[in-house]
Design goal:
This protein is an alpha+beta fold. It has 10 helices and 18 strands.
Amino acid sequence: MFNIIQEVKKIEKDIINWRRKLHQIPEVGLNLRKTSKFIMDELDNMNIEYHTLVNGNAIVGLIKGREEGKTVGLRADTDALPVKEETGLEFASNNGCMHACGHDGHTAILLGVAKVLNENKDKFKGNVKLLFQPGEEYPGGAKPMIEEGALENPKVDAVMGLHLGNLGKGIPKGKIGVSYGAMMAAVDVMYIKINGKGSHGAYPHQAIDPIVTASEIVLALQTIISREVDPVEPAVVSVTRIDGGFNHNIIPDSVEIQGTIRTVNEDTRQRISRRIEEIVKGITMAHGGSYEIDYEFCYPALINSEEFTKGFVESAKKIIPEDDIVEMKVPVMGAEDMSFFLQRVPGTFFYLSNPGEIDGQFYPHHNPKFDIDEEEIWKGAALIIQSTIDWLNEN
């Protein structure tokens, strides 16, 4: 009798050890040479075939089951953040970067999943694709992986992934969060430059003041959410940087504004992007200035397949108590480029709540003292393995 929990528990120490080794070599963006080599070395040790994409920084492994069938993609993001670690852990990084979002744990879990599935290929039909993805934090590695064929040969029919830590509020530690639809927001970035005419601060009538113009724009942008979006629809427009001027008595020539936009509905996303430029144009023209705008559509909303998620939940009940499965009723406004994979094929993304304590308290993602509780990691591997086998063996 194949007991998945027992199989995962056998390699639990390996998963934790992988996580700690990865934690010591954090790399950012799409250039993850040490991380990629670590993953490839472990896949070589497991005799799992793979190839690389994105200039050698993304890895696609393949495990073939006992006979032909469907193909499931299992995704783990592998990059870190430009954050100097302050955890004090024995295995803390010291290169100025840090796995402050749990991606080291995601990668270690997928290596554990790969090991168990590869050693039990006779237990399932079809194929398992291992998608080790760089650049989730920035600039996004899922899209280039897809463009380079990560979901082809064999064609991926469904995809799964998870996130560690405590992203989903209201999910107690040790439990998982699932969503049957929209789970995370789309993220876009706006950059606006207001061009005016500089002058001495004592003679403002000789200027076209970009600071006053920018101030009106910042306030007006807030009305998009408060007056143009349905109050029960999740959406955010946040101005996060305003930069202009350099002396107390000089009106500058220009001011820069930057911010983030979060939406769940694609129509709302497009409408907000149009309204931002309309507002900027109108206010700038009213003041006699000009503007430059760069609006970047980054990651789409992460939307799970209801049908696939229902199947995942049924599989999860075989691993953890049903009470440990928490349905998320509303999406969080953070973003994840797993969304690109879920745009192409159905699947699910779930949260495993396992924040770790540093100095007696929990710290949020992207914090220099962020950590995860390694004692909960085995659940992530077991849940993915169970769901993978159940789905592949469906008629």
